[in-house]
Design goal:
alpha/beta; Rossmann fold; 7-stranded mixed β-sheet; 3 helices; 31% strand
Length: 163
Amino acid sequence: MVDAAATAEARLDGPSVDLWGTLVGEAAERDRVFVGLKGELGAGKTRLVTAACRGAGSLDRVSSPTFALVHEYRGPRGPIWHVDLYRISGPGELPALGWEDMESGAGPVFVEWSDRAGGMLPADRWEIELGFLPGGPADVRRVRCRSIGGAPPVPPFRGATRH
């Protein structure tokens, strides 16, 4: 079930994505949230995860797991998972990635290209979509986020510059 009140949209420049991403990371680490990320290539999914990992307390170097598929970072209370499903052929490949461990709630999970997980996504999660603005500034993104099921509310865009 999607709570319409938990859905928000903003237009954020790069530094604002970073700032908001740290808030997302703080909350995701605190509440052990599963976060699905959608957006075209280059839309800023990995940038958002980098900021979220900082907000979650990881000092590890964050990079796109496009070829490795999964990166696990050290957080203050356990693992922070960063997954990229761009190269998988379907949800049948998820168990081999350690999907069950990620769903255990031991730490926050950030999944790029989450739509490729099909019905394997947890019922309680956040969905964040980043997109380019046609004809808009190159560094500004349209960001949509929503809380699904019993997941806590996504942090508001408070403190971020809206465009």
